[in-house]
Design brief:
The chain has helices at about 10-70, 75-110, 160-180, 200-205, and strands at about 115, 120, 120-130, 135-145, 150-160, 185-195, 210-215, 220. The protein is of the alpha/beta class. A hairpin with a 2-residue loop joins β1 (about 115) and β2 (about 120). The radius of gyration is 23 Å and the shape is elongated.
Length: about 230
């Protein structure tokens, strides 16, 4: 409600009407969020199919390149250029898929503001950290906070050992040193995505990182609980 309401001065009838209106607005917001998530999922499915097709085309081009490498150097260079163009398209599509995964997990967390039975008061997305010259050092995908805890969530299209190690060794130290709001709080670390390599789950657990995944209802759940 945009207008300030003094609940203490309300009659019971006014209070009941206020509660009804509040519930109505909350339900409308929930339906809108669900629709947005459905759209994002459909777009992510389309992008995945395009990525698979491009991957197949790239593999076919590479095989063809090997077969003609001894016959014509000019043809090899032409195919190599085409392959690089396709690889750039794959990279661009990968970025879009990663962004879709981030939005999906972000909206899932908004629904509950809860991770591992811990409720968080605030949730922020795409926090950029810069040096004194304004140069970008890194970016935190999602951060949730309450009075005691700060949960840092890294989101990737595919969660694997490489993504986990990059998060721990490269991004996390910068975030911890630059973000004054998380200093003094107990950190909870998570990484999530659309697909999870099985071997990476144990690797994340050993590093003290929880694995996040959206379930069929768009609710974020942790595959390895009790991470601290």
């Amino acid at each position: 409600m945009a207008k300030k309401i003094n609940i203490r001065k309300m009659t019971m009838t006014e209070f009941d009407e206020y509660i009804k209106e509040y519930r109505k607005e909350t339900e409308a917001l929930r339906r809108k969020t669900d629709l947005e998530i459905d759209v994002i999922r459909k777009e992510a499915d389309i992008i995945r199919k395009e990525t698979d097709q491009i991957r197949k085309e790239t593999e076919a081009i590479r095989k063809e390149s090997e077969e003609i490498s001894k016959k014509n150097k000019i043809e090899i260079e032409a195919i190599s250029r085409e392959s690089k163009i396709l690889e750039k398209k794959m990279h661009d599509l990968g970025v879009n898929i990663g962004s879709a995964a981030e939005v999906s997990i972000y909206h899932g967390l908004i629904k509950t503001k809860k991770l591992q039975n811990i409720f968080f008061n605030t949730i922020s997305r795409n926090i950029t950290y810069r040096d004194n010259d304004g140069k970008t050092l890194t970016e935190a995908d999602i951060i949730l906070m309450n009075g005691k805890y700060a949960a840092i969530v890294e989101v990737k299209h595919r969660v694997n050992r490489t993504a986990i190690n990059d998060f721990i060794k490269n991004k996390l130290p910068i975030i911890r040193s630059c973000d004054k709001y998380i200093q003094g709080k107990k950190l909870l670390l998570f990484i999530g995505g659309d697909s999870i390599e099985k071997k990476s789950i144990q690797h994340a657990k050993a590093a003290g990182i929880g694995i996040l995944l959206n379930d069929s209802n768009g609710v974020v759940e942790s595959l390895n609980s009790n991470i601290h």
